[in-house]
Amino acid sequence: MDLLLSIFEQGFIYAIMGLGVYITYKILDFPDLSVDGTFPLGAAITAVLITMGVNPYVTLIISLLGGALAGVFTGIIHVKFKVRDLLSGIIMMTALYTINLRIAGGVANVPIFNYKTIFDNDFINGIFPDSISQFKTVIVVFIILLIAKLLLDLYLKTKSGYLLRAVGDNEKIVTSLAKDSGITKIIGLALANGLVALAGSVMCQQQRFFEITMGTGTIVIGLASVIIGMNVFKTNKLKATTAVVLGSVIYKACVAIAIECGLEASDLKLVTAVLFFIILVFSMDRKKKVKS
Fold first, then answer.
1. Angle at which helices 240-260 and 218-232 pack, to 10 degrees?
2. What is the pLDDT of residues 83-136, one digit of tens each?
3. I need a surface site. Which of 60, 70, 186, 258 has the fewest CB within 10 A?
4. pTM score, two decimals?
5. Can you say whether the dihedral through the CA atoms of 142, 143, 148, 149 is positive or negative?
């Protein structure tokens, strides 16, 4: 039961981040490496604000806005200064390392063990009796994920959402409609990085600490979630965002099973790399079959 709860808790948190990666990777076709910096950005903002006595639920919104702002800067570097998409993300990711340290007061680790979080406060403890208290974390994370997913689905059905899809498919179409494709890209990057920072905020409160390196490999986890979901659940009846959520849970389950089979926690990065490689090879093989 503990293993199952851990899989769903971690899977749902990374699914929020996966939704952001889905926007950049699948919709915009933008290799945005800045998510490795915006994930700990959300955690840093959350940890500092909670130690200052700010309501933990308010920190979720502030973290989201902080991530969105970082996404805007990534977009500006790419759109206004004509820097290649991959390099724009690398520049922002590198800058965010120092920014995150500054936000955290120059320290690499900020614990919040003795503070109230979205999972441990008077309101939540009052709703969940001791008999089901072990499920409160996964339920709270699921509610946040569900809200983020539904809002993203609604946005993608708006005029701005359709423009976002069009930019990823063919920029010239957007330009022919007298719309600025650059602004649309910036909006997409802001939305994506906002979701990634939100995931970092939730992760920080779930683990009860901020650590400067907690964002390392975030882009790989996000891409794995998207690719697994889009390939395993490739059906018109299932929404792409739902497939990403399921892909994230499957990914975390594979990692958890590998650890349970005797691998050390230090082998996690190797497991992630091997799993990601297998997913990529499998997805490319399916594309070749479709073309033939």
1. 110
2. 999 999 999 999 999 999 999 999 999 999 999 999 999 999 999 888 888 999
3. 258
4. 0.94
5. positive
d(C-alpha 113, C-alpha 49), whole Å: 14
Say how many residues make up the chain: 292
- The angle at the Cα of 15, spanning 92 to 197, to the nearest 5 degrees, equals 35
Q: Which two tokens stand for residue 196?
A: 């990634």
| Cα gap 118→131, rounded to integer Å | 19
pLDDT digits (tens, 9 = 90+) for 210-242: 999 999 889 989 999 999 898 888 776 789 999
What is the DSSP track for 234-249?
Answer: --TTS-HHHHHHHHHH
Say how far apart CA 66 and CA 44 lie, in whole Å. 10
State the DSSP H helix or E strand holding residue 109, giving kind and residue range, or none if neither.
Answer: strand 109-111
Burial class (CB in 10 A: 0-12, 13-18, 19+), 290: exposed
Query: Which residues, 6 or more positions from 247, have their beta carbon under 8 angstroms from its beta carbon?
Result: 18, 224, 225, 226, 227, 228, 229, 230, 232, 233
Is the predicted pLDDT of residue 73 greater than 60, yes or no? yes
The Cα-based distances of 30 to 25, 78, 156, 199 in angstroms read 5, 10, 17, 20
Return the H-helix or E-strand segment holding 181.
helix 181-207
- In this structure, the number of other CB atoms found within 10 A of the CB of residue 105 comes to 11
Tokens representing 193?
A: 């990085």
- What DSSP letter does each residue of 199-214 carry, written as one string? HHHHHHHHHTEEETTT
Matching residue, tokens 């009846």: 237
Answer yes or no: are the C-beta atoms of 190 and 69 closer than 8 Å: yes
What are 237-261's pLDDT values in tens digits? 789 999 999 999 999 998 888 888 8
The contacts of residue 30 (CB under 8 Å, 6+ apart) are 24, 78, 85, 89, 168, 185, 188, 189
